Amino acid sequence: MELRDKAKLLFAWFNDHYEEMLGKIELIVNMDSFSHDGKDVNVLGETVCSFFEGTDFITEKAAKKECPEDEPWQAELGNVFTARTHKKEDGAGIVFLAHMDTVFPKGTAGKRPFYFDKENDRAYGPGIVDMKSGLIMNIFVARALKELGLVSCPITLTFSPDEEIGSPSALPVLQDELKNALVSFCSEPGYVGNGVTIERKGSGHILLEITGKSSHAGRAYAEGASAILELAHKILAFDKYVDLSRDKTVNTGIIKGGTSANSVAPNAMARIHLTYKTLEEGERLVEAIKEEAAKTYVEGTRTSLSGGLRLPPLVPNAGAKKLYEFVKNAGEMIQYVPFVEASKGAAESGFCSSVLKIPSICSMGPEGGFLHNEKEYIIPSTIIPRCELIALASIQAADYFHK
Question: What is its cofactor (predicted)?
Answer without folding.
Answer: Zn(2+)
